[in-house]
Specification:
single chain, 293 residues, alpha/beta, Alpha-Beta Plaits, Rossmann fold, 2 domains, eight-stranded mixed beta sheet, four-stranded antiparallel beta sheet, 9 helices, 26% helix
Length: 293
C-alpha cells in the first residue's frame, strides 16, 4: 500500500519527545535519521542514541489528513514557535523483492562464493554457499562479514571444528563447512538467527554437521580448532573471557564487527591468550586474528 512520510528536523534533545508526539497524531511508525549521515555505534542497552541534528520521520497511511497532523503538531510546546517539515508520498513497492533484486552473488578469497538462494550460481565448480538470511544478520555485503569470509577461505579447514560465535544467518559456519570443516557450532542470542542458520544449513546440505545453540543451551567445555566472532567491539571486549577459552591450544581466532578506531582496545582484551596477527582493515572496519597460546 502507498504511504505518506513526514520529516521534521530536530535535535538529539528533542527528537524522542517529538517522535512520541508524531505517534500520537496517528503515525504507524517513527524513525530517527542523522541529518549529516554521521554513524552512531553501540548504544547502551535500552538507550536510543541520537545525533546533534536529527530528522524525525513519521510514516502515515496514504489516507491520513496531513493538514490535521500538522495542526496537531503545531500546538506542541517544542513546535509552537514554528518548525521545518517535509511531506512526501512514498512509492508503493514490494520492499522484500526490491532487496532481493539487489542481492547478487559475491566472491570471497579464491574459492568461495556466497549466492542468494533465488539466483543462478555463477561458478558451479566453486565452493558455493546458498544463502537466504531471513531475519538474521549476515549476507556478505557488509565489510565485516566479507573480512571473515576471506579469512576462512585462506585457512586449511579440512577436518577441523569451527565455532561461529554470534552466527546470525549462519553464513560463516556454513562457509566453513563447505570449505572442508568436519563440524561447525553456531551460537546466537536470537532465536530467529538460530532458525535462519538452520534453514540455510539445510539449503546447503550441511545441517547434519552444524549444531546450533542459544547461549543458555550450549554445552559446557566447548572447544574448536577455529573460532570466529563477527559481532561488535563492546561485546567482544566484555566477552573476551568466554570467547578466549573456546579455541584449543594452537587454534585460531578471528574477530570482526570492529571499527578500525576500536581495534587497539579489542586487541588488548585478547593479548594474554593469543599471539595476534597484524590487524586487517576494510572500509573503516577491521579484522583481528590470532593463535591461541
Amino acid at each position: 500500500m502507498p504511504w505518506i512520510q513526514l520529516k521534521i528536523n530536530a535535535t538529539g534533545e528533542t527528537a524522542e519527545e517529538l517522535g512520541d508526539a508524531i505517534m500520537e497524531t496517528g503515525a504507524v511508525s517513527v524513525t530517527f535519521q542523522d541529518t549529516h549521515d554521521t554513524p552512531v555505534f553501540e548504544p547502551l542497552p535500552g538507550e536510543t542514541r541520537l545525533w546533534g541534528d536529527t530528522d524525525v520521520i513519521g510514516l502515515f497511511d496514504a489516507e491520513a489528513d496531513m493538514n490535521d497532523v500538522i495542526a496537531q503538531l503545531s500546538v506542541h510546546p517544542l513546535l509552537a514557535s514554528g518548525f521545518h517539515h517535509k511531506i512526501e508520498q512514498l512509492e508503493d513497492k514490494d520492499w522484500e523483492r526490491e532487496w532481493m533484486e539487489n542481492f547478487h552473488p559475491m566472491k570471497f578469497g579464491n574459492r568461495l562464493w556466497i549466492c542468494p538462494s533465488w539466483r543462478d550460481i555463477p561458478d558451479p565448480d566453486a565452493v558455493n554457499v546458498l544463502l537466504d538470511p531471513g531475519l538474521a544478520f549476515g549476507t556478505g555485503t557488509h565489510p565485516t562479514t566479507s573480512l571473515c569470509l576471506q579469512w576462512l577461505d585462506g585457512l586449511d579447514l579440512v577436518g577441523k571444528t569451527v565455532i561461529d560465535f554470534g552466527c546470525g544467518s549462519g553464513i560463516l559456519a556454513i562457509a566453513a563447512l563447505k570449505l572442508g570443516a568436519a563440524k561447525a557450532i553456531g551460537i546466537d542470542i536470537d532465536p530467529q538467527a538460530i532458525q535462519a542458520s538452520r534453514d540455510n544449513a539445510e539449503r546447503n546440505g550441511v545441517s547434519d554437521r552444524l549444531s546450533l545453540y542459544l547461549p543458555a543451551d550450549q554445552p559446557e567445555g566447548l572447544k574448536a580448532d577455529v573460532v570466529v566472532a563477527n559481532i561488535l567491539a563492546g561485546p567482544l571486549r566484555e566477552l573476551a573471557p568466554l570467547i578466549g577459552v573456546l579455541p584449543i591450544t594452537g587454534g585460531v581466532l578471528g574477530l570482526s564487527g570492529i571499527l578500525a578506531s576500536q581495534a587497539s582496545s579489542v586487541c588488548a582484551a585478547y593479548t594474554d591468550r593469543f599471539a595476534l596477527d597484524p590487524v586487517v582493515e576494510k572500509e573503516e572496519w577491521c579484522r583481528i586474528t590470532g593463535t591461541c597460546l
